[in-house]
Amino acid sequence: MKQDELKFALRGTLIHAPAIGAVEILENALLAVDDGGQIAEVTNPGEQGYAELEQLAAQAGKLEELSPKQYLLPGLVDTHVHAPQWPQLGKALDRPLDEWLQKYTFPLEARYADAEFAERVYRNLARTLIANGTTTAMYYATIHLEASMRLAEICLEQGQRALVGKVAMDNPEQCPDYYRDASAGQGLEDTGRFMEQVLGMPGNAGRLVLPVITPRFIPACTDEMLQGLGELAQHSGCHVQTHCSEGDWEHAYVLERYGKTDTLSLDGFGLLTPQTVLAHCDFIDDADMRVIKGADTGIAHCPLSNLYFANAVFPARKALDRGLQVGLGTDIAAGANPGILHNCQMAVTASRALEDGVNPDLPAEERGTAGTRIDFREAFWMATAGGGEALGLKVGKFVRGYAFDAIVVDTDAPDSNLIIWEDMDNGDDILQKIIYNADRRNIKRVWVQGEQIKG
Amino acid sequence: MKQDELKFALRGTLIHAPAIGAVEILENALLAVDDGGQIAEVTNPGEQGYAELEQLAAQAGKLEELSPKQYLLPGLVDTHVHAPQWPQLGKALDRPLDEWLQKYTFPLEARYADAEFAERVYRNLARTLIANGTTTAMYYATIHLEASMRLAEICLEQGQRALVGKVAMDNPEQCPDYYRDASAGQGLEDTGRFMEQVLGMPGNAGRLVLPVITPRFIPACTDEMLQGLGELAQHSGCHVQTHCSEGDWEHAYVLERYGKTDTLSLDGFGLLTPQTVLAHCDFIDDADMRVIKGADTGIAHCPLSNLYFANAVFPARKALDRGLQVGLGTDIAAGANPGILHNCQMAVTASRALEDGVNPDLPAEERGTAGTRIDFREAFWMATAGGGEALGLKVGKFVRGYAFDAIVVDTDAPDSNLIIWEDMDNGDDILQKIIYNADRRNIKRVWVQGEQIKG
Asked: What is the pLDDT of residues B288-313, one digit of tens each?
C-alpha cells in the first residue's frame, strides 16, 4: 500500500474469532488501517509483507506499539438496546413483567416526547456503551421522531456505529393510550421520514449511523402497520428489528392472533430480510430456524435479560450449529448490565443452566438437555463477528476489508479484578479471564471505522 | 456513652437488611462506633439521643459526614472461598469438572507446599476481596500447614475478618498421590496444630481471624478423618466448613458409601454444629433441611459457581422460608467472580431460572417451579446479615452490639456503570442499582471492627 493511504499501523497481540468456536491469537502482529478506516492488512512476523509494512509505517511515523499487557480485540457489537430504558437499568427487576412495562417502562418511554430529556439520557447512554467497548449498537428509540433523531445524532457525534429505529406501535388493544402512534398511517409516515433524516444527517455520508424499521413486536402493532413496514423493508433494503418469540405470553398471543408462530407471521409481512435482527427467539421451533436461516436473518441473543423476562434460555448451541447468524444483546433495561463482555459470560452461564437443568428435585436425566452448552469461544464469536454477521456489517474480525472497529483491553489496569499471572496463564486463559473479569477500566482505547473514540 | 469510649460517629444514609426480605434505609442517621469497634448506637433525626450523640461526637472532633451520594452498607460476607484457586479465576471453565479438578485445581493447590508462592497469591487475593467490599471471608486453604498459616497472617495483617481452614483430605481413592494428607492421623494433627497457631497469632487476641475445621468433602476423606474432625469440632467449638450435596456425582457417591445423604452422614460424624457452614447444598431434601435447621448450621449459597459445576440451582427461597441460615459465597475459583455484590445479582438471576425453568421445548407448567424466586432484598440479606448468621458472627447489620464492619458505596464514582438519576430513583432503586452495577471503584471505604482498611 502507499504511504498516504495508511492511516496508521498497530503492532501487538490481536485476539479475535475468525470462525464460530475458533479463537485466533496473533502475537506481535501488524495491522494496517487505511485512510477510509478499513483494515488494509494483517500480517504476522515472518510472513510476506511484514517487514515492508513495518518499514512503511515507521517511516511515516504511523507505527504504534501496544504494551505487552494490552490486547487488541474486535469492537463489541450490541444487537439489542432499548435506549429510552437506560435510566431504568437495574430497577424494578423484582416486579412482574406486566407491571414492569405498564408502571415503569411505558411511562418512561413516553417522556421522550421531551427532546431535552432524550438528549440528557442518550448522551449518557452512548458514552457509557462506548466506555464499555461497544463499537456497534442496534437501538430501539421511542415513537417520537425528534427524540429518535437526537439518538442518531448523538451516536454520530460520539463516533459510535449505530443502527437506530423509531419505534412503531399503534395497536390500541396492547399499547397505552398515552404512548402509541396515532395511527398506522402516522407511524409509517414517521418511520419513512426518520429513515430519510438519518441517511441525510450532515456527516453521515459514510453511513456510520443507519435507520432501522422497528415494529416493537407483533402484539403492539396492527396488521396495517406490520404490512406497511414490511413493504417499506422490501422496497428500501433498510434494516429491520423486532422481538420474536421472547416469552410464553408473546409466543402464545401471536399463535392465537395468526394461527402461526412469530417467525412465520413476520415472514408473511415481508419483515424477514438479510437486514433483519430478531431479538430473543427463545421459543422458535425447528421450522422457524429453517425460515430464519433461509431468510439470512439475524438473531439477537440476550442471555441476561432472558433469565428475567423470557421464561426460558435461548438454545444458542443449536442455533449456531444450524448455521444461524447470532449476535449478543444487552437488552437494556430488561438486561440490567450495559456490557457485552458481561453478556458474553452470561451466554455461557445460561447455556450451562440449559445443559444441566436447574431443578434439583428432578433426576439428572430429566433435568437438563445434553449437548446445549457453549463456551467462551462461541460467546466471544457472538459478541464480535457473530454480531457483525447478524447485522450484515463487515465488523467484528481482523480481516482485510473489514472496518477497523476495535478495543484495547489492558490487563494491567489499576483497581481491577482482571488479574493475569504471567507464569500461569496462556492466551486462551487470558481471553477467558477478560470475558469474566474485565470491566470498562480495562478497556483503554476504542476505535470505530479507524477513528479513536476512547482513550 | 462517654466521649473517650467513642471511636467515631458517622452521619449519612444507611442501608441494611435487618430481617429477611426487609430493607431499611435510614437517612441522615447517626451511627456511633465504640473504642472496641462495636456499634454503640444507631439513631435517626428526631429520635431520643440523636442531638446528644451529635454534640458529643462533634465536640470530640469525631463526627464524620458521608456525602449525599454515598451510602453506608454492612460489609459483605463471603462464606465460601478456595483461596489457593485464586490464580485459576475465570480459567478452564470450558473443561469438564473432573478435568478442571485433576488438570488445573489439584496441581495448582499442590504448589502451596511452597510458602513463598502462597504468600504471593494470598496477598493479592485478600487485597482484592477487601477492595470488593468483602469484610468477612471463610477460606479453604490447602493441606499445607505453613501456607495455610500465611493466609491467616495475611488476613490479620490486612485487617480482614477471616475464617481459615487447613484442608483435610486423606482418601487415597479420591485424592491424587501428590496432593493429600499423608494419613488421617497426620491430617488431624496438622488441623489441631493449625487451630492453636491461628488462635495464638500475635495481634489476634480479638480473634479477628478464626481457625476452621475443614474436611474438603466426604469423598476426599476417610472415615477415620471424618470421625476425628467431628470429635475435634465437638470438643473445641471451632468452626467447621465442608461441601454438601453439591452436584449429582458427589450426592450419589455419599449415598452409595453411607446409604444416606451428605447432611445425615456429616451429622453422624458430629460435623453439623452451630459453627458449621455447608457449601452449596443444592441437593438437600426436606429431611436434610430439618436436620440442618435443627443443628443451627449455616449454608453457603454459591449461585454463580452452581451454574457451572453443581448441576442445579440451590432452592434459596425454600431454604429461607424454612428459617435456614443462608449466606452467599463466591466459591472462587469455580465461581469466576470475586465479588459478593455480583453473587447477589446471580442469586436473583439463578432463582429466576429456577422459577421459570430454562428449556423452551417444555410447556411452561412443566418447565419451572412456581414460587421459587427471590429478589434483591433476600439476596442483600444473604450477602450481609444472612452470612453473619450462617457464620455465627454478629456482623452484617447496623444494630447496637454488632461489629462495625461496613462499606461506603459512592454512586458518584468516575468511570462507573452505576448511574443514579436523582429525579427518578428512590432508595430501593438505588440499592438494586448498586447490586447490579456497582463495582470495586464504587466501594470507597471499608471498615472491619471499626478499623478502616480501604480508602
From this structure: 999 999 999 999 999 999 999 999 99
